[in-house]
């Protein structure tokens, strides 16, 4: 029995890989247009970063992290999300010195030890952006618009923005008191998990998926009615910019997101008709995170989105994936005696900028043609005694089946001429 991939992981096979770089290229294209620069952080960090960054009481930190000691017993964790590492890199590299506002994006694997189910993996891929250094509501709106544009450019339809404000350090303290008071006589009705949440961070109770807990929270005091004037104004401005750009959004005062670092704006992009786990991107403002990770007080805002879910939704919506590029020329030898010439020609064609391949075995002409068909080669170049005596090959258009003799050094010219090839 051969060894299989670990539970919750998957191979991205050659048939699917083009989908990935199609999406990644689109992400880079749109975000570069918005002025973001790519950053790549390590796959693992010191565990402390996530405990301090994401919050001790969050589901991610309490039960989903892959944490392990290194050989000197320092605790490491495979990154479960991208924002804390980006902020760590921002601080460590003094990025604030180069410019007041730093705009970064990342694409990479994240790791969470979740129960693998419908589109959820233990190693999954996310892309995200972070704007660090501005508290302007315009930045919140830019982040939402950049995310939307990526989805639109990829052809995703029926997306909706769900938005909320979760307040700031000042107003949230009072609000949490209110919430605690509200929940204090309902503790018996909460699930065990939520009783713990009640103690550590009652906001988390809004995240509970259990119907009984959700029902209780329906009548809970809402953060949006308890915002301080600054948070209230910020939220108003975000909404008015969204109106201005005619971006439809839906207000959800119960949206708190699963991470502790959010302040003010929190949002999700949801795909209508995707069922319960319909969020395909989520983000918000994190005005205290930089300070919590040891920097000067510096506001920030960003979002993250899962690429696996994105592909799932694109498949559901039957979006046409671009066809992967095929081999331009497959060289076919009439007999094994031509193999040295064929090998030299192969490299010559590749050096000219075309893609080329051949079958190194000495199988029959028929079997070589079968391979050419299977890999979708646009042309075959057939080499036999007759052709070689005249320094020529027989070039065959695999679609029209037309063929003609072409001089060895004119293959490239011939293909560029009428082939319609993308070279
Ligand atoms: Zn506030
Ligand atoms: Zn609960």
Secondary structure layout:
Layout: H1 17-33, E1 37-38, E2 44-46, H2 47-54, H3 59-64, E3 67-69, E4 75-78, H4 83-92, H5 95-98, E5 102-111, E6 123-132, H6 137-153, E7 159-165, H7 169-184, H8 192-200, H9 211-217, H10 229-244, E8 249-251, E9 263-271, E10 279-285, H11 289-292, E11 300-306, H12 307-316, E12 329-333, H13 339-351, E13 356-358, H14 365-374, E14 379-383, H15 385-389, E15 392-397, E16 403-407, H16 411-418
Parallel strand pairs: 1-5, 7-8, 12-13, 12-14
Antiparallel strand pairs: 2-4, 3-4, 5-6, 6-11, 7-9, 9-10, 10-11, 14-15, 15-16
Helix pairs in contact: 1-6, 2-4, 6-10
The protein binds zinc ion (2 copies).
Binding site for L-histidine: 81-83, 112, 126, 130, 257, 261-262
Family: Belongs to the class-II aminoacyl-tRNA synthetase family.
Organism: Candidatus Infernicultor aquiphilus
């Amino acid at each position: 029995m051969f060894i299989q991939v670990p539970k919750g992981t998957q191979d991205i096979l050659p048939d699917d890989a083009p989908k990935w770089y199609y999406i990644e290229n689109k992400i880079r294209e749109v975000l570069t247009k918005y002025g973001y620069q790519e950053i790549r952080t390590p796959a693992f960090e010191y565990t402390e970063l996530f405990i301090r960054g994401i919050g001790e009481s969050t589901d991610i930190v309490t039960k989903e992290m892959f944490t392990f000691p290194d050989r000197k017993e320092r605790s490491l964790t495979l990154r479960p999300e991208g924002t804390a590492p980006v902020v760590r890199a921002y601080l460590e590299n003094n990025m604030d010195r180069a410019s007041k506002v730093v705009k970064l994006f990342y694409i990479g694997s994240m790791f969470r030890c979740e129960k693998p189910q419908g589109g959820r993996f233990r190693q999954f891929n996310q892309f995200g952006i972070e704007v660090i250094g501005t508290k302007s509501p315009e930045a919140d709106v830019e982040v939402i618009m950049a995310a939307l544009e990526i989805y639109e450019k990829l052809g995703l339809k029926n997306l909706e923005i769900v938005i909320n404000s979760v307040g700031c350090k000042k107003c949230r303290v009072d609000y949490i008191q209110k919430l605690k008071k509200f929940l204090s006589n309902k503790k018996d009705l909460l699930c065990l998990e939520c009783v713990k949440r009640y103690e550590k961070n009652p906001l988390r109770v809004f995240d509970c998926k259990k119907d009984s807990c959700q029902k209780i929270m329906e009548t809970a005091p809402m953060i949006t009615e308890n915002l301080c004037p600054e948070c209230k104004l910020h939220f108003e401005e975000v909404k008015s910019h969204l109106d201005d750009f005619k971006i439809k959004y839906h207000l959800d005062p119960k949206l708190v997101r699963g991470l502790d670092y959010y302040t003010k704006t929190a949002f999700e992009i949801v795909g209508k008709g995707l069922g319960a786990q319909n969020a395909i991107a989520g983000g918000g403002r994190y005005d205290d995170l930089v300070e919590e990770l040891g920097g000067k007080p510096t506001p920030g805002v960003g979002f993250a989105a899962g690429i696996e879910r994105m592909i799932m939704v694109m498949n559901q919506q039957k979006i046409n994936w671009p066809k992967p590029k095929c081999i331009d020329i497959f060289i076919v030898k009439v007999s094994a005696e031509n193999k040295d010439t064929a090998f030299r020609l192969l490299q010559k064609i590749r050096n000219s900028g075309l893609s080329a391949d051949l079958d190194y075995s000495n199988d029959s002409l028929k079997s070589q043609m079968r391979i050419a068909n299977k890999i979708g080669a646009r042309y075959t170049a057939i080499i036999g005694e007759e052709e070689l005596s005249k320094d020529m090959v027989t070039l065959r258009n695999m679609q029209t089946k037309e063929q003609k003799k072409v001089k060895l050094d004119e293959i490239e010219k011939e293909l560029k001429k009428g082939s319609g090839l993308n070279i």
